[in-house]
Amino acid sequence: MASKVYNGETIRKMTLLFLPHATPHYNWLIEKGHRELIETVEFIKSGKEMSFQWMINNQHFEMAAFANAVRGDKNAFRWLMQHKSLFWAATANAANKDKEAMAWLLSHNFIVYAELAKAIVEWEKFENDDFSGYYKAPTSR
Length: 141
Fold this sequence. Notes:
The protein is mainly alpha-helical. 65% of the residues lie in helices and 0% in strands. The chain is built from nine helices and no strands. The protein has helices at residues 8-16, 23-31, 35-46, 49-57, 61-70, 74-82, 86-95, 99-107, 111-124. Helix 5 packs across helix 6 (74-82). The protein is globular, with a radius of gyration of 15 Å.
């Protein structure tokens, strides 16, 4: 399957999946036929093999490589570069706190991708095991 082109609204909905109470955005992406973006976010968040396999089985290789690159896989980043997926490669690097990648996204006006990278960075700052929001109360001993 050839790479899909997403508009800004679609990437914004994907970005919102990294925030609490994302059900409306999830539903919107499903209704618009963008399940691969949901599976991408799920794999980034949880590493669930089922999400990765769904992307591979449905030939969403670019999104699978992006998700792996966000999770630190250098080979996935190289794959993105070799397949001219520059903005996805830059977004993955920006999500991995590469300031030059973020600057590149912003200077090339890939604002929604920069926002996606920022959302991933923010999401990773917190322990999100229960996906109930940003604050997790300390456990009592």
